[in-house]
């Protein structure tokens, strides 16, 4: 993770997502494949004394009626509300990255976004990875305009903490108008969550705070807040707006 974060050929959104992940020591040791396939930080999943449908199918999800401030509002089911933990996955999904999977019997390339499964009624199955497959490469499409990209991570403390909400954004701006946009969010969904409707609303709009507010008004559509995480609905929109503003401040 540290090697990729510091590589000059990497888009800022990827580099920033990595640098805001874990700690320097962890980043020095962890791999990109391991980060993309890390398990959720849901406290009920981690506490083996508790029931958890993801760890023990059919045992229940205590988070739904329990301590759920950190949990997901998008992509949830009646069986699981755990968030996806990876930061760099959010950046890679925003950019439409693919991964190459190799096994003893061959190889295939899939969109990273398609690797992750929504929990549905089988939250124990998190990806479409087949037995024996390894991630051997991450392929990021060349988007020259993604040099204007960033990753904003909102968390309870400013270091060594998972996201309450994060936003990966890239903007192609020409003559003060948005020609293309990539937007994905983390910390609020069960998988890295691309906001295609926000991207569509940004295309053709002026690069102004008012247009950002309008385009992101649909960001949390479909959200199902729990007892303690309703704040994520508005935080989601505000985090995306903040990332868009960061990309345009001072650009005239
Ligand atoms: C205290 C703490 C805080 C953290 N904070 C953050 C954070 O804020 N943001 C964030 O994004 N991450 C965070 N992480 C995750 C961390 O950055 C690592 O990515 C994670 O711990 C995985 O480590 P690893 O690379 O050693 O993978 P491993 O633990 O070795 O692997 C994880 C899983 O992936 C599988 N795997 C590994 N490589 C491959 C491959 N190439 N192909 C197929 N399967 C593979 C392994 O078999 C295993 O199942 C945190 C971790 C800790 C412990």
What does this structure look like?
This protein has 252 residues and is α+β, with helices and mostly antiparallel strands. The chain has 2 domains: 2-139, Uridine Diphospho-n-acetylenolpyruvylglucosamine Reductase, domain 3 (2-Layer Sandwich); 144-248, 2-Layer Sandwich (Enolase-like, domain 1), CATH 3.30.390. The protein has 10 helices and 7 strands. The strands form 2 sheets. It has a 4-stranded antiparallel beta sheet, sandwiched between helices. A 3-stranded antiparallel beta sheet has the order 2-1-3. The chain is globular. The model has no long low-confidence stretch (mean pLDDT 97). Flavin-adenine dinucleotide binds next to helix 3, helix 4 and strand 3.
Gist of the model:
The chain has 252 residues and is an alpha+beta fold. The chain has helices at residues 2-5, 12-19, 24-29, 32-36, 43-46, 88-94, 112-115, 196-202, 209-215, 231-248; strands at residues 98-103, 106-111, 134-139, 149-154, 165-174, 177-186, 193-194.
């Amino acid at each position: 993770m540290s090697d990729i974060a510091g590589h000059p050929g990497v888009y800022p959104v990827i580099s920033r997502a990595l640098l805001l992940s874990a700690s320097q020591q962890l980043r020095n040791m962890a791999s990109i494949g391991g980060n993309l396939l890390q398990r959720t930080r849901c406290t009920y999943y981690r506490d083996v004394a508790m029931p958890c449908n993801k760890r023990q199918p059919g045992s229940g999800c205590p988070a739904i009626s329990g301590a759920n401030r950190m949990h997901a509002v998008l992509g949830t089911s009646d069986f699981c509300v755990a968030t996806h933990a990876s930061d760099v996955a959010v950046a890679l999904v925003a950019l439409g990255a693919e991964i190459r999977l190799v096994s003893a019997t061959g190889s295939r390339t899939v969109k990273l976004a398609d690797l992750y499964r929504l929990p549905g009624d089988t939250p124990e199955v998190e990806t479409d990875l087949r037995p024996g497959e390894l991630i051997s490469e991450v392929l990021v499409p060349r988007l020259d305009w993604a040099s204007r990209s960033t990753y904003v991570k909102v968390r309870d403390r400013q270091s060594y903490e998972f996201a309450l909400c994060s936003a990966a954004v890239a903007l192609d701006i020409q003559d003060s108008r948005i020609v293309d946009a990539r937007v994905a969010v983390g910390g609020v969904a069960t998988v890295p969550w691309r906001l295609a409707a926000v991207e569509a609303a940004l295309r053709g709009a002026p690069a102004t705070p008012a247009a950002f507010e309008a385009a992101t008004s649909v960001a949390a559509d479909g959200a199902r807040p729990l007892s303690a995480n309703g704040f994520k609905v508005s935080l989601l929109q505000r985090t995306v707006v903040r990332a868009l503003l960061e990309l345009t401040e001072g650009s005239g």
